[in-house]
Request: fold
Amino acid sequence: MSKRKKLLKKFLERPVGLTFAEIQVLLFSVGFNLESVSGSHHKFYHSYLKKSFTIPIHHGDCKNSYKIYILKFITSNNIHIIYSL
Reply:
């Protein structure tokens, strides 16, 4: 199993256990691009779905509520299946 698959599995099981750096790697691997950074706010965009969201980062991490939002976004749009890592 590749590192990205392990990371996705870990994220799907327990999203609050990941750091922002790991989440960023995961987002890049499922087709997101970092559209812009304005201060502490990182805006990610998915070109296939034409959707974006912003994650505020403080002290090198984001709040657990954003991690859960990302999880719901990825699973509801079946991104993890489309980009079978």
Observations:
- The CA atoms of residues 9 and 85 lie 10 Å apart.
- The two ends are 10 Å apart (CA to CA).
- DSSP finds four helices and three strands in the chain.
